[in-house]
Amino acid sequence: MSHDESGKYDICQLQGVIRSSPAAGKHEEKGLSLVVRIKRTLKRRLSVRVQRRIKDAISSTFDLFNRRHGRAKTLKSIPDTQPSKRLNAGDLVRVRPREEIQATLDRWRSLKGCGFLDEMAGYCGTTQRVLKRVERFIDERDYRLKKASGIVLLDGVLCSGTGKTGRCDRACFFFWREEWLEKVDGPAGSES
């Protein structure tokens, strides 16, 4: 926690960094289309709860449209992850192929609220080690402590920015759903 000039404590370093940055938290938007700039502006100004309601309304509308036009919603094939196969720190895992992971994703490219980024696809097919389970985290969109289940961090698998935002030096861990990973047995040094 850091202490700001008003005497209040921040719950995450990011809040203080945003306030002290020359751009006051605004992203570099040169070269972006008008639609993308409008989306980013709305996303920054709307609460997470309002964003979720908008997504739910859009999903319901799409589902209704598809049912009326004879396009039934197909169930996603989620790979089986039994409680006995629960992943823990130190476990070796193979990241499932991109096609298998994509089959689990909804129209928002997420599974149970956990998004799969294009940058994560580079790890598909590789063997990694589980660093730890994620049970609680600060959601920096609304600075609230959230509970999680079925999510792990992989040792050394860090984000260095996205195609949309460009390079980022923060080096955050990607959140991985257990359904996207397959536990493997092998010697400790067999990571690739």
In short:
This protein is of the alpha+beta class and 192 residues long. The chain is built from four helices and nine strands; from the N terminus they run H-H-H-E-H-E-E-E-E-E-E-E-E.
Question: Could you give the topology of this structure?
Answer:
Layout lengths: L12 H8 L13 H12 L2 H21 L23 E4 L2 H5 L7 E2 L2 E2 L11 E13 L4 E11 L6 E2 L3 E2 L8 E2 L3 E3 L9
Antiparallel strand pairs: 1-4, 1-9, 2-3, 4-5, 5-8, 6-7
For this structure, the quaternary state is single chain
Quickly count the domains.
Answer: 2
Form type: globular
Number of strands: 9
Helix fraction bin: 10-25%
Largest sheet, if any? 5 strands, antiparallel
Lateral arrangement of strands in the main beta sheet: 8-5-4-1-9
Mean pLDDT across all residues, rounded?
Answer: 78
CA gyration radius, whole angstroms: 19 Å
The share of residues in extended strands comes to 15-25%
**How many helix segments?**
4
Our measurement of the CA-to-CA distance between the termini, rounded to an integer number of angstroms, reads 36 Å
Unreliable segments (pLDDT under 50, ≥5 consecutive)?
Answer: 1-11
What order do the helices and strands follow?
Answer: HHHEHEEEEEEEE
* Helix-and-strand structural type: alpha+beta
